[in-house]
């Protein structure tokens, strides 16, 4: 198999056109509709946050403040829930989420080297997103595939026995 060199510049050629801008009037209106459907039910905050995050793919400060105000909850409670649960994000994520497993089996079999190669190739560190919003890079502690270690996931795709030499080919599938 031929290995194609992937660089941050080559990834930018196929940039995801959407940029994380402030909320527009349409998003504000849809957010208020979501909150109104849960009026008087502060116990449904997590559901509201799920629906709100689906609007932009992330939860900017303005969105959290609107939810807190409209649900008559302290901002600290809303922010606390968002920061507690890893499925919520206050930073824009990429179109593709790459997770490098660093559980025991993956770590021992070279998971840290795979993560370093992903980071170098994409030009970002873990928990960051490429400027074109194509990729976000993260770490997971176990994906339950220890016999296939080291493992990398891209969205719902699982890649087994990944080594640094396979990273470029893996990324090419998503450019």
User: Helical percent range?
Assistant: 40-55%
Q: Record the strand order, biggest sheet.
A: 2-3-1-4-5
The biggest beta sheet reads: 5 strands, mixed
Structural class: alpha+beta
Distance between the termini: 18 Å
Which stretches are poorly predicted, pLDDT < 50 over at least 5 residues?
1-5, 7-20
* CATH homology group of the largest domain: Glutaredoxin
Please report the first level of CATH classification, the CATH class of the largest domain: Alpha Beta
Q: Please, how many domains?
A: 2
Radius of gyration: 19 Å
Backbone shape: elongated
Count of DSSP strands: 5
Give the second-level CATH assignment, the architecture of the largest domain: 3-Layer(aba) Sandwich
In percent terms, what proportion of residues is strand? 5-15%
How would you describe what is shown here?
The protein is α+β, with helices and mostly antiparallel strands and about 180 residues long. It has two domains: about 60 residues, no CATH class; about 80 residues, Glutaredoxin, CATH 3.40.30. The protein has eight helices and five strands; from the N terminus they run αααααβααββββα. Strands 2-3-1-4-5 form a five-stranded mixed beta sheet, covered by helices on one side. The chain is elongated. The chain starts with 7 loop residues before the first helix and ends with a helix.
